[in-house]
Amino acid sequence: MSRKRAIGLAVGGVLLVALVAGLLLFQPWLLFIDDRVDEDDDASEVVGTASGGLTDTSVPSASAAERTRVELASGEFIDAEHGTSGEAIIYRRSDGTRFLRLQGLDTSNGPDLHVWITDQESGGGCDGCFDSWGIYDDGDYVRLGALKGNQGNQSYEIPEGAELGGMRSVVIWCDQFNVAFGTAAIG
């Protein structure tokens, strides 16, 4: 085999390995595949909005047979690194448990997407500064789990001991690239 052919095969091999590694890392096909989830809303009746916001500890009254809930906070999603729309609503049920409801969510699909509640301001908080969509893991946050689908309606239980005082936004977060896809102001 000639030296020129050997160099050509080696360069081709390196390029092929780089292409496969890039595809596995970035998973670009996810941008063209939507994962729609339409979970039913909680069966409890909404009886009002809590006056104390996220730190309100009052529990809506209900009979033993009837479950109710109050809205603690809500906000509309805005774009971050990807176009995102929909609404994020945090509720407290009559049994004291809390959950986040995503209504009408529409964002890009991507690798390793999660739902967080953070103490960072929705919208990046630094008006045009470099990497303003990557700040959401810089402070306190509560992880609610993997995003169930990039479109539709879905609910996430908030852990019992999670402290929500000082939390300011709900974030669709890409762990793989440390960037927000979209955020919603809640506080």
Largest sheet: 10 strands, mixed
What overall form do the CA principal axes indicate? elongated
Spans of at least 5 consecutive residues whose pLDDT stays below 50 are none
Q: Return the average pLDDT rounded to an integer.
A: 85
* Range of strand content: 35-45%
Q: How widely separated are the two ends?
A: 68 Å
Here the CATH topology of the largest domain equals Immunoglobulin-like
What's the domain count?
2
CATH class wording of the largest domain: Mainly Beta
Tell me the structural class. mainly beta
Radius of gyration using CA atoms only? 21 Å
Q: Give the count of helical stretches.
A: 1
CATH architecture field of the largest domain: Sandwich
The tally of strands reads: 10
By oligomeric state, this entry counts as single chain
* Topology as a string of helices (H) and strands (E): HEEEEEEEEEE
Q: How much helix, percentage-wise, in residues?
A: 10-25%
Protein name: DM13 domain-containing protein
InterPro entries: DM13_domain
Organism: Nocardioides vastitatis
